[in-house]
Amino acid sequence: MNPLNHVAIIMDGNGRWGLKHKNSRNAGHKAGLITVEKVIKETIRNKIGFLTLYAFSTENWKRPKKEINFLFSLLESFLNNRLDELHKQNIKLKIIGNKNFSKKLNQLLNTAEKKTLKNKKLQINLALNYGSKFELLNAFKNLQKNKAKINEKNLRKYLQTADVPDPDLLIRTGNTKRLSNFLLWQLAYSEIFFEKKLWPEFNVKDYNKIIKKYKIIKRNFGKI
């Protein structure tokens, strides 16, 4: 059985689900948050130490301003209402990406990270305004700035996931088969599962089915 320490998820399909069922993309984002909470709970139950969620990419700024504002208001509401509960559950929250948001949201994100810093049960890496190409370019710039030798070990030190093991498993919902500029370095040897269901439709049974399949995959890492 393969050990499972880190699951990464591209939560795709909220907007499409919202249009289909509620005639509103925003309704889909709200429904998707319910799925997030279910997945967090199941991740803890499966004793998985790290969960990385792709919430907002650097490319998502191209979306309508009203939708972007709703997404961030949803995030603010979630943190205001659930941060204490996450802390009580011994969950650590880490933001990966460029914190180029409103002063209010940045303060809220910083508070969440500081409050949960020493928690050990589960680390949730929330990818916000995140793009892997930007992350890699920054890592190389920092290598150059610090006059460090360019090798894999040193590069890892400057990634935003420097203190996190690479994902063992990537799940992407929404019936789309691409990585969308997400953890391109870190996913080099991850097992990838593309799920047809839209994110609000994804449930605990689907999650555990993928975990079960992952655990029996023969992982060679280049060997025979």
Task: Describe the structure in your own words.
There is one protein chain. The protein is of the alpha/beta class and 224 residues long. The protein has a single domain, classed as Decaprenyl diphosphate synthase-like (Undecaprenyl pyrophosphate synthetase). It is built from seven helices and six strands. The chain has helices at residues 14-22, 25-45, 65-88, 103-115, 132-145, 152-157, 204-215; strands at residues 6-10, 50-57, 91-96, 122-130, 169-172, 191-194. It has a six-stranded parallel β-sheet with strand order 3-4-2-1-5-6, sandwiched between helices. The chain is globular, with a radius of gyration of 17 Å. The two termini are 17 Å apart. The mean pLDDT is 97.
CATH homologous superfamily descriptor: Decaprenyl diphosphate synthase-like
**Share of helix, binned:** 40-55%
Beta-strand level of the residues, as a percent range?
A: 15-25%
Report the average pLDDT across residues: 97
Low confidence ranges: none
Shape descriptor reads: globular
Computed CA radius of gyration, to the nearest angstrom? 17 Å
Distance separating the two termini: 17 Å
| Count of discrete structural domains | 1
What topology emerges from the helices and strands here?
Blueprint: E1 6-10, H1 14-22, H2 25-45, E2 50-57, H3 65-88, E3 91-96, H4 103-115, E4 122-130, H5 132-145, H6 152-157, E5 169-172, E6 191-194, H7 204-215
Parallel strand pairs: 1-2, 1-5, 2-4, 3-4, 5-6
Helix pairs in contact: 1-2, 2-3, 3-4
Give the tags.
globular; 16% strand; Undecaprenyl pyrophosphate synthetase; 6 strands; 7 helices
